[in-house]
Design a protein that fits this description.
The structure holds 2 protein chains of 2 kinds. Chain A is of the alpha/beta class. Chain A has 4 domains: 198 residues, no CATH class; 126 residues, no CATH class; 92 residues, Elongation Factor Tu (Ef-tu), domain 3 (Beta Barrel), CATH 2.40.30; 125 residues, Rossmann fold. Chain A contains 19 helices and 30 strands. The longest helix of chain A has 20 residues. In chain B, 40% of the residues lie in helices and 11% in strands. Chain B folds into 2 domains: 149 residues, Rossmann fold; 89 residues, no CATH class. By secondary structure, chain B is α/β, with parallel strands linked by helices. In chain B, helix 3 links the parallel strand 3 and strand 4. A 5-stranded parallel β-sheet of chain B has the order 2-1-3-4-5. The chains are: A alpha/beta, B alpha/beta.
Amino acid sequence: MEIYVLPKQEMGGFVAGLAARYEVLGPVAKEEEFVFAPVSSAAELRLDYDTTILPPHKKYFLPPMETLFTFDGRASGREVEPAVGERVLFGVHACDVNGLLSLDQVFLGSYPDPYYRARRASTAIIGLNCTEPCENGFCSSFNTGPGMDRGYDLALTDIGEAFLVEVGSERGKELAKGLAPASDEHLIAKNRALRAAQQMITRRIDTEGLAQLLHENVEHAEWEELAEICLSCGSCTNVCPTCFCFGVKDYVELDLTTGTRPREWDSCQFYEFSRVAMDHVFRPGRPARIKQRMYHKLTYFQQQFDAPGCVGCGRCVTYCIVDIDPVEIVENIQENPNPGKEVHLYTPPPRRECPDTSPWKPLPAVIKGIKKQTADTTTYTLAFQDPKVQEAYTYQPGVFNMVSLFGLGEAPISISSSADTRGSFDHTIRAVGNVTNALEKCQVGDVIGIRGPYGRGWPVEEMEGKNVLLIAGGIGLAPLRPVIKHIQARRDRYGSLEILYGARTPADMLFTDEFDEWRAIPDTKLYLTVDRADPADCWQFNVGVVTTLCDLMAAVPENTVVVTCGPDIMMKFVVKTLLGRGFSPEQIFVSLERRMSCGIKKCGNCQIGPVFVCQDGPVFRYSDVQDLPEEIL
Amino acid sequence: MAKPKLAFFKFTSCAGCLLSVLNLEDHLLDIVGAVDIVHFLMARRETQPGPYDVAFIEGAVSTPHEVEQLKEIRRQSKVLVALGNCAVTGGVPSMKNFAGSEREMEERVYSETWDIKSIPVRGLDYYVKVDEYLRGCSIDLNELVVLLKSLLLGVSPRFRPHSVCNECKLKENVCLLISKGKACMGSVSAAGCGALCPSLNRPCEGCRGPSNDANAEALAYTFVSDLGLSPEEVRRKFQKYAGNTPAFRKGAEAL
């Protein structure tokens, strides 16, 4: 690509030229620090800035709060078009350009995010290579600075009397029009300046074998020590150029019908980040939260998106009140490793094709039927309002939809109907949160929003030719019902089917009216248990936790696939019992629950270590996740 | 559907939160259209007896009489809201809990104490179940409106008591603690105020109480080691607005 030179005294004219055509966003002083803000002339620009409080690309492409929808009914939302004209981000450092490339992997990969994409497409990046390293940066550790080699439309380097201007794209060529071509001397000066800068960077993380080392040191004393001093304030994630997690929440007007659905940055450092309905928190401990951030930056991100999760900008150090510093943490562990059990590096399943439509827009679906299962659980039969959408709608057993009620929010709910069903689909829902409680008040004919299906389901193909052991607890039977239906419809393709189902009381059992039908499936056994039963219940089956049913079943490890779903604690004991009986982790499949705000590997809420439950799961082969750096059950 | 009946009460406090309810000018008429305010002495003399759909109580509990009154209001109300920091944690009045015995405090304030019966100052949930909390000294009016709408919708507003630092960083404020050496408590204090004080160059005083899983001890050590505060100054900071809470008690007692 072309290389030009821009004498410093001509910078004013260059910026004025840009400002005449674009909105120019560049570094300006804010008291003793710097932030990116709109500028109209070069005089306002502070190209000598060291770092900015928020990374410019994140601030403008993934704003802290962004309205996704406005709505005027529970199923009638309109996507908000990001109101951005043509813009130029002027003077972005190499670390942030690389941070932007990492965020691109999250937001432009599978299920491209229309909001991010619109902003990204209308914005040119004019990078600024660092000839004077900042105080806390360690970018050279990851080859994400001080100079940039991609991701820019134009890249500037201060070479004394002038800036060298490298063109990185067709758009850059346009922006550089009118500049004088650079000479070899200019290029040599640039290389000399960057080499000098590189040598001035003394802070460094040795990345050799780092992922493996961290995975082995999950129980290192360092994490407990950090938890003593960490304030859980979340500043580190806010200022991080690659942190992308957000939550989605609905706000209504006083008419309770119209309102907005924005997304807002969230932080894995907050206690309530992993909270789901009934106030269950999956990551309550501070050491686990600190580990989640450090591991996500230094290994998980790379595993998930094949891009660096840390670009060494140093902001998390600069803005940490108690001086928590990844460079020091890694050094401490490298110098004094205390490896625990062996932990393997998780590789996510390959990306799948996704529809080209907006992944955020719930489509209107009509409630065709409502069937009460228990006092708090109901099965809703739904069909998309648009018959074409309904006709094209297919799914695997075990996957889920995001159920949306504008004004109340969205909730991930598994599909409980047979995947062979055409014309409708079922959700079996326990009323425990804002969305599910509101659903309980819905009536036949009401319209709600559905988007999906999402995730990976049960391995019904791998199960063919094998015996199937299906173990469900409580509401966990809902995502397994499609497996029963699937086998019923293709009975000759499977071996014996044993269903072990437990609930708290007889009144908490789901699908009781289908039990006789299931028992009538050839070579099928249904074993039931409850935690407790009153004499008045006339309960004639087992009493005890679901694992007590394992004594009744005929299933043996040979030629069997186990599928299980229920509360975490139940699955934990199911897995333990089965492993004790000689089953292998490879033949057990579990379905996991976590907080989800998107379903499409964007919001980050559902991560367990490097795993995204929404897209890598919710169904996992137990051996794939049993020794992650973070416990799954 | 009948309009929900709302009642507002006041215990030991400055009345600032109730006053700010009256400052809801932009929304007040709409809200009055959606609800029935049946008890609000600051706004009007006529009152109706319970039961109430929602009772808001401003103020801490500091006398045996208030304990009885609180239990009665709880009994009469479907939803009980702690309105403002005094009702949430005991607030500013709870400073007296750490200053001496009840007797000493009574004698320091009143010339005649035969009719004074004071007890340690507590937030409402020391005595009864509280359904929703509106934090702050005084409350944030936006949060009040969000809460009212949530109650009308029949859902929880799910306020998230994470740190003030979070909201401060989103505004790209220059950090008062790191850059200016001010003893800002934002890192361990609950947000929802939009980082109001730090945005006006004033350090956060923690008027909304501790954030979720706040690590006040660590901040207490930092105040001493990095900013040179005395242990006594640190103790007073953590006992100013929410000394009753376990998190800030740890901060106050860290040194």
